[in-house]
Amino acid sequence: MAVVESQDLSSLRAWQPASGQFSNRASSLTPSSVFFLSHIGVWPHVDLARVQPYHHMRVWDGLDSSSAISFSSSSPPIATMTENPNLQQALLQRLSQLPPVDVFDSTKVATIEEGPSESSQATLDLASYPSVTLSSGKTIFARLLVGADGLNSPVRKYAGIHTRGWDYGRHGVVATLKLKDGNVERGQDDVTIAYQRFLPSGPIALLAMPGNHTTLVWSTTPEQAAKLKSLASEDFVAMVNAAFRLGHVDLEYMSHLDSGHGEELAWRCGVTGIKEDEARIPRMVESVQHGSIASFPLRYRQADAYTSSRIALVGDAAHTIHPLAGQGLNMGLADVQSLARTIEYTVEHGGDIGDEMYLDRYNSMMWMQNNRMLGVTDKLHKLYGVSWGPLVGIRRLGLKMVDQVGPVKSWLMRQAGGITT
């Protein structure tokens, strides 16, 4: 077994983050994902002091604050926030405990071609095996080539598998923030609540990290994303606070300012009043971690198939989803779990793990499941991107109905958490 990674993994193997500093690359893991990581022996290697479960979530419409829904779950939590480097270093630690696996880091794939038509080994016909040549010059023949190589997957291109989808014309702005200390009325437990407000340009979310820290994910236009990244730290913080408190018109005005956002926010809160109930929105953000503000384009992609002969695609190589539901990594982990079960089944039945007939079990199971999640998030993005009055009213009615019908809310939580029973 071999793993090819273009990045240098030495920093992850020696990962020692500074106390009170958190990576802006963080993910929300569902209970099913945490269970899977525990089952395969990875979770014990995660630094749990840097992990934050959250048990409550509030979602509301930025054009109508009465249109809201809340979720609560004591055990298991709704989701668990962890930094991606924390999870990566845990995976590397677990990998080092397993039977020898060749890890080629700081190495790129130079070419992927069909195997030689004539093999010198009498017992093994390599003609059907993908031949992977690395940047180091080494060549690997793969009985099964798993493409976990991202949006522009070379493995997918080699297999001739097409993708369908579109760009959203939106960017996701991420940052690591620190919230102000709580007060007697609010208490300290409110830092474990996840908040999401749907603005016309896209949703903004704060997801709890340990202590008073939180991760920001703000989906907005490319122009607004560039503007946010150009602001001074105090102005960026003011814009985040405004996005959870002010009306759409006030926020739109502030988005065109070059500076002075803090003073403008204070004036508008005093004159026009905060449009949201302070007890139902996150604490004021106090600061943004230096160097943590970044952005990335948002896309929808779905491969026509996840498998072909001796090829399997997982994660972003197979699908790319809008981050509003926090399902990207969870979908990738579910892919890996399903593929592992398929390989296990194939071996138990004496089959060839690269045989397309066996691999189709994985494709049949995960393609439709992922397609449903992709469709739901895509429709939510489009639904909440409309400011037309009658549709806002319909959104309010629908959300209130879901919020008041317990079985429906429970079903939605189970689906979002990857619990299908």
What features would you describe in this structure?
The protein is α+β, with helices and mostly antiparallel strands and 421 residues long. The chain is 35% helix and 26% strand. The chain has helices spanning 10-13, 31-39, 84-97, 154-159, 222-230, 233-243, 248-254, 261-271, 328-348, 356-383, 389-404, 406-416, and strands at residues 2-4, 26-29, 52-54, 56-61, 64-72, 79-83, 102-104, 109-114, 130-134, 139-141, 145-147, 163-179, 193-199, 202-208, 213-220, 285-288, 294-303, 307-308, 311-313, 319-320. The strands form 5 sheets. Strands 4, 5, 12, 13, 14, 15, 16, 17 and 20 form a 9-stranded mixed sheet that branches. Strands 2-6-3 form a 3-stranded antiparallel sheet. It has a 3-stranded antiparallel sheet with strand order 8-9-10. Helix 9 packs antiparallel against helix 10. The longest helix is centred in the last third of the chain and has 28 residues, at 356-383. It is elongated. The model has no long low-confidence stretch (mean pLDDT 90).
Provide a compact summary of the structure.
By secondary structure, this protein is of the alpha+beta class. It is built from twelve helices and 20 strands. Strands 4, 5, 12, 13, 14, 15, 16, 17 and 20 form a nine-stranded mixed sheet that branches. The chain has a three-stranded antiparallel sheet with strand order 2-6-3. A three-stranded antiparallel sheet has the order 8-9-10.
